[in-house]
Amino acid sequence: MNEKAKYYIQKLQLKKHPEGGYFREIYRAGEIISIDAPKKNNKRNVSTSIYFLLEGSQISKFHKLKSDELWHFYDGTAVRIYILDQNGKLSETMIGREIKNGEMFQTAIEKNNWFAAEVIDKKSFSLIGCTVSPGFDFSDFELAKRKNLLKNFPEHKELILKFTDPGYNT
């Protein structure tokens, strides 16, 4: 593992994330709002944020949220983010510090779009921040089931095979 990645994991007290990589929540707004959801679970914090780190060949598997998410680049090397919208249109964006190479310091992923990410330099790492609004709740998180994505978006088979878990279909 990259020494600087190890340092951040330890110093920032990051834990493994279900989609891949490491994370720790660092902010949860105190203000609560109502969202369009079942009455039992229709309250969300206005905003939340986490540190998120991908190391080397780790990936962030395809997943989607019911809220918009902003990704902010902090350190390491660039991250490529793949976004599949609800109609199956694929777009890619890169966050990093090399603006001249088309990288940006932050990008937004709209709610209900599938997205996945990878570190460009497999010998490095990427430390980013993710801000979700309305705030993140695990009940709004959906990890992609490979067979469902393949059924709905067969034209993206290669990418789906790379960024989904073969055993996660139920």
Specify the overall morphology: globular
By DSSP, the count of extended strands is 13
Described by its quaternary structure, the protein is single chain
Count of the separate structural domains = 1
- As laid out across the biggest beta sheet, the strand order is 1-2-5-12-7-10
* Helix residue percentage: 10-25%
**What structural class should be given to the helix and strand makeup?**
mainly beta
The succession of helices and strands, N to C, reads HEEEEEEEEEEEEEHH
How is the CATH topology named?
Jelly Rolls
The low-confidence runs, each spanning 5 or more residues with pLDDT under 50, are: none
CATH architecture: Sandwich
How many DSSP H or I helices? 3
Nearest-angstrom radius of gyration?
16 Å
Kindly estimate the percentage of residues that lie in beta strands according to DSSP. 35-45%
Query: First CA to last CA: what distance?
Result: 32 Å
The CATH homologous superfamily is called Jelly Rolls
CATH class: Mainly Beta
Q: Quick one: biggest sheet?
A: 6 strands, antiparallel
The mean pLDDT is 93
What would you note in describing this structure?
There is one protein chain. This protein has 170 residues and is mostly beta strands. The protein has one domain (3-162): Jelly Rolls (Sandwich). It is 13% helix and 43% strand. The protein contains 3 helices and 13 strands; from the N terminus they run αβββββββββββββαα. It has helices at residues 3-11, 146-152, 157-162, and strands spanning 15-16, 22-28, 32-34, 43-45, 48-55, 59-65, 68-76, 79-84, 90-95, 106-109, 114-119, 125-133, 141-143. It has a 6-stranded antiparallel β-sheet with strand order 1-2-5-12-7-10, covered by helices on one side. Strands 9-8-11-6-13 form a 5-stranded antiparallel β-sheet, with no helix packed on it. A two-stranded antiparallel sheet has the order 3-4. The protein is globular and about 45 Å long. The model has no long low-confidence stretch (mean pLDDT 93).
